[in-house]
Design a protein that fits this description.
This is phosphoserine transaminase. The chain has ten helices and 14 strands. The chain is α/β, with parallel strands linked by helices and 409 residues long. It folds into two domains: 252 residues, Aspartate Aminotransferase, domain 2, CATH 3.40.640; 108 residues, Aspartate Aminotransferase, domain 1, CATH 3.90.1150. Helix 4 links the parallel strand 3 and strand 4. The chain is globular. The two termini are 33 Å apart. The chain binds pyridoxal-5'-phosphate. The site of pyridoxal-5'-phosphate (PLP) has 11 residues, from helix 3.
């Protein structure tokens, strides 16, 4: 068994900074001078509470989260939020519109990839008989082959409902490598200008694979933003929520008016009222994620990561583009909609992807195999995940390998 670490380009759980892993090793034995390891200490101890407060504050200041929004910590991952967000926002809608019929209670889903498709499917399951789930737009319609999630559709196609219980989108589609652009002038940006301005819009964003890799555009206009920790900031087991106060509602009062009952563990109000400590939280993932965001602050915060992530993505797409010109690589995603975090491309020719993956592995680079569902042929597709912990030097090493691969092809 090798004790050497490799470069892990995997999509998640993914690489974490080595310095943080080493610091966490110490905390595992003795957390903050308490003489008790972090996995052993009570979540109600003053030392853990102080750590949690600092963690929250580090997210709040780096993402510039306004006082209108709470930051909450929970478990259950993105998948848990596919359900929780539906139930909490249906409860909110019921309190605002006590007599609304299922036809008048509409959930708007923007579908730009496998994860938003899954979220919409869960909404359909939970809302059956209570509400109507609408696909606002499905990006496959605008794809090159009519089948792939390879683009952000034109703004004109985003026809939101009049007064929906939620509007849902996934900022970065991890499997398909499609992401909304953060340049407001780009046709691939999220069409914030089409949202009604005179009400508190229940806009929900899944930021699972792009949380804290750069600032969140129009954060204050969102009702709920959520992310599993396991891509950019920590191990799996922690889910982070940013919830606008008006979405923290008494779900039992809503149930008395006919809304679906909400399990206590999924209720945003229960989480908020208990300071995210209603039941035992994921102490160890919180600790490791807290160390990561502390390190991020020391490194210069999101401006530093935004610039680094921009350069990493630009360099990588440049070599993929070069390979495309030579007929060796083929990008899966249309220009302008490519993800900064998950670059997806094919290596053309019989056996070529296998050769690419094996060659990379020989040089200590792993986790490059794409998701089966994206592939248009027998093989897999390459997916390079460029989360925060992947350094520029590591990307340069991959690019050097890709350059040699092109030379030999
Ligand atoms: N949403 C996105 C964008 C994801 O990438 C993932 C997982 O990779 C999920 C949701 C599901 O998250 P989890 O596995 O934490 O339930």
């Amino acid at each position: 068994m090798s004790t050497e670490r490799v470069i892990n380009f995997g999509a998640g759980p993914s690489a974490l900074p080595l310095s943080v892993l080493e610091e966490a090793q110490k905390g595992l034995v003795n957390f903050d001078g308490t003489g008790i390891g972090i996995a052993e200490i009570s979540h109600r101890s003053k030392e853990f509470q102080a750590f949690l407060d600092e963690f929250e504050q580090n997210i709040r200041t780096q993402l510039d989260v306004p006082p209108t929004h709470r930051i909450l910590f929970t478990q259950g991952g993105g998948t848990g939020q596919f359900s929780a967000v539906v139930l909490n926002l249906l409860a909110r809608h019921r309190l605002l519109h006590p007599t609304a019929t299922p036809e008048e209670t509409v959930l708007d889903y923007v579908v730009t990839g496998s994860w938003s498709k899954k979220a919409a499917e869960e909404a359909r399951r939970l809302a059956a008989g209570h509400a109507t789930v609408r696909t606002v737009v499905d990006s496959r319609v605008y794809s090159k082959d009519g089948k792939a999630y390879d683009n952000i559709p034109p703004h004109a196609e985003f026809a939101f409902s009049e007064d929906p219980a939620l509007i849902y989108y996934c900022e970065n589609e991890t499997v398909d490598g499609v992401e909304f652009s953060h340049d407001p002038q780009s046709p691939a940006s999220f069409p914030f200008h089409l949202l009604k301005r005179d009400t508190l819009v229940p806009l929900v964003a899944d930021y699972s694979s792009s949380f804290m890799c750069r600032p969140i555009p129009r954060l204050a206009d969102h009702a709920v933003i959520y992310a599993g920790a396991q891509k950019n900031i920590g191990p799996a087991g922690l889910t982070i929520l940013i919830v606008r106060q008006d979405c923290i509602v008494d779900v039992d009062a809503a149930a008395r008016l006919g809304a679906t009952p909400v399990p206590l563990s999924l209720s945003y109000k229960i989480l908020a009222d208990s300071g995210s400590l209603y039941n035992t939280p994921a102490v160890l993932p919180i600790y490791m994620s807290g160390l990561v965001v502390r390190r991020m602050k020391e490194n210069g915060g999101l401006p530093y990561y935004e610039e680094m992530n921009r350069r990493k993505a630009q360099k990588l797409y440049a070599i993929v583009h070069e390979g495309e010109q030579k007929g060796v690589f083929r990008r899966k995603v249309q220009q302008g909609s490519e993800s900064w975090m998950n670059a997806v491309f094919e290596v053309l020719g019989e056996g070529a992807e296998k050769k690419f993956l094996e060659g990379a592995e020989k040089e200590g680079m792993k986790g490059l195999k794409g998701h089966r569902s994206v592939s248009s042929h027998a093989l897999l597709c390459i997916r390079v995940s460029l989360y925060n912990a992947i350094t520029e030097e590591e990307v340069d090493k991959l690019i050097a390998y890709m350059t040699r691969f092109l030379g030999e092809s």
